[in-house]
Write a structure and sequence with these properties.
elongated
Length: about 70
């Protein structure tokens, strides 16, 4: 089942990319999905940085109180 979903998703991507060279709108759709999957690791780092700062703030006051 998962393989069928992957094949169905991978099939339209090349078609959109080919059409993208002709029209600017079609390519705009596939890139976001690809970036989300590939950039997931990059986004994870950027997301972890702000989270770490937020997590560090609460522990500091609790540490001083404790």
């Amino acid at each position: 089942m998962l393989t069928s979903a992957i094949l169905s998703l991978s099939a339209p991507r090349p078609q959109q990319l080919c059409r993208g060279s002709i029209a600017p709108e079609p390519p705009a759709a596939p890139p976001p999905r690809v970036f989300v999957l590939r950039a997931g690791s990059r986004q994870g780092e950027t997301v972890v940085k702000p989270r770490l700062t937020e997590k560090k703030q609460p522990p500091k006051p609790t540490g001083t109180k404790g």
